Here is the input.
Amino acid sequence: MRAPLLAFVLLLPVMAMALTPEEDAVYRERIRLINGGRAADPTGTALYQPLESIPGDQRWQPLPTRDPAARRVSAEAWAAARDYAARTNSNALVVWHDGAVEYAEYFGRHRAELPVVARSLAKPVTTVAVGRALALGRIQSLDQPAVTWFDEWQEWPKSAILVRHLLDMRGGFLAQGPTFDPASIFARAYASPRHDEVMLREYPLTHTPGTRYEYANTPSDLVAPLVERATGQRYAEFLSREVFKPIGAPDGQVWINRPGGVAHAGCCLLAPAELWLRLAILLMDDGVWNGQRLLPEGYVQAVRAPTPQNPWAGMGVYVAGDYVERRGAANPDMPPPIPKTLHSEPYLARDLFLFDGNANQAVWIVPSLRLIVLRTGDDPPRGPGTPEWDNAFLPNTIIRGLPEDWRRRAEPQPRPQSR
Here is the structure.
């Protein structure tokens, strides 16, 4: 087995991808919007130009809603969850249980049909897209080398990157950094009108593929060119035909780096909250929708399986795992000031897994309870005297609100161990 590569070997300077004057102007404006934050881009969508349509099911109808008289989740649990969501800048809170929506609340001016700015909630979409390409035979295996489609990676070590490594963050790529200086690799791999070429030709490795978990946008964003080269379809076209329409989802949009260019698969998808609810149901049901198998048998089990390098992360999703009070998207061994999210108590079901994106947007999925809890919105309030966001509060509050016969079905967590 090859030893992990040394970072200083892999971080040698690489000549930056040349842009035309027009492309450079677009790039500089994007950097201005990013660094200007809310003041420059209040809605968080001005950056995402141009957008490409992802047509959904033209006969789309909202998921069934349970009659209030037949609800299983107690009104008290819903009131506590709703109050928490309202206090934390949410725009949507939805509880689905065993075939129907129990409760749904949209806050402020948001409505059920309006798009959510997905941020990293787009990453589970890449997982479903790869699974669908596997089911169609366009990708042969999660262990197929990505170099099958990425001729740019003919040389070791990038030739060792497998398809699964783009989903489980073990490709060996440089960990995501906070800087958006125009010259930085992070800025160019995100905001360049040729970000696909930057990722494929310039983005560095710091470790041998498969040996370390490091969170970054690049692996997920690379799913778009992978799917396009494997299927011969544009990423948005493939999502429309093979994911959105088969699960009856509403329309969406995805940011592309330039007109006719490549989609940002890992961050920048706009769609109503119900898209993620439907994706959660699809994964809960092992990739089957209305009797039609869309994902290979056993694929969801692989998606939910953690790796030795991160016991709380699968492929585009996070898992309950053994309890720790704080965990985040970065490598679990990273010390402060790398942020980690509070979990005030263990999740009440060991089989819980979740989609989790920036601004504490999350979709918690509990197969043993046939339960899904969705929260989208902006960053919760932060600062002195403001309660810290607790990633366990919403799902555990709703689980406690289920009837006892349902709660008994949950896969129990082991007792927390001292650390």
